[in-house]
Amino acid sequence: MARAVRELLIGIGEDPDREGLRKTPDRVARAYREAVEGLGREPSEVLTTVFDEGHDEMVLVRDIDFSSLCEHHLVVFSGRAHVAYIPNNRGQITGLSKLARLVDLYARRPQVQERLTSQIADALVDVLEPRGVMVVVEAEHLCMSMRGVRKPGATTVTSAVRGQFLSTATRSEGMSLILGSRR
Length: 183
Ligand SMILES: Nc1nc2c(ncn2[C@@H]2O[C@H](COP(=O)(O)OP(=O)(O)OP(=O)(O)O)[C@@H](O)[C@H]2O)c(=O)[nH]1
Ligand SMILES: [Zn+2]
Hints:
This protein is α+β, with helices and mostly antiparallel strands. The protein has helices at residues 2-11, 24-35, 43-46, 96-107, 113-128, 142-145, 168-179, and strands spanning 50-52, 59-70, 76-86, 92-94, 110-111, 132-141, 156-163. The chain binds guanosine-5'-triphosphate and zinc ion.
């Protein structure tokens, strides 16, 4: 990666050996390694703690900050994820922090927002076997604000809905709880 960044610097007409840039290839390599540290990790690694709490109503963690890498331009898209599920009949729930860890696991890799959203939902379905899942992701894409079409402030909203959340009443209950987070 560091070699590639050195080439990139040459490509943009810079001198990679000048003082300010000498350490840049290594720094950028470390930064990218951190940005993709979710690659190769499995949701079962983070959704480890399951409690038999007998709670069978909706659980929602909203406003989970994340940043990810747009796989088309390798620049950041970032925003907030809202993750809701309805536990299964055994009332099995997971640790709240695990939902945020799951968001990071899928955000920390080259992504498109739609896939990020559905991967979070599908992982919860697979591991927790809940009666329903709803994931809403709101993000701003730097590839749309700093370059290209240059529309800073444009927000992309995606959702993935599974199981009981497909019913109109449950979906709108979930949505209104999520929208309640707007400041
Ligand atoms: N659906 C979707 N599109 C994305 C996402 N991130 C970036 N894109 C889009 O991917 C597209 C790539 O389009 P291309 O025409 O191949 O690339 P480009 O010439 O750089 O496109 P512009 O951004 O329009 O300048 C752009 O329209 C981006 O806005 C994402 O998460 N989901
Ligand atoms: Zn992009």
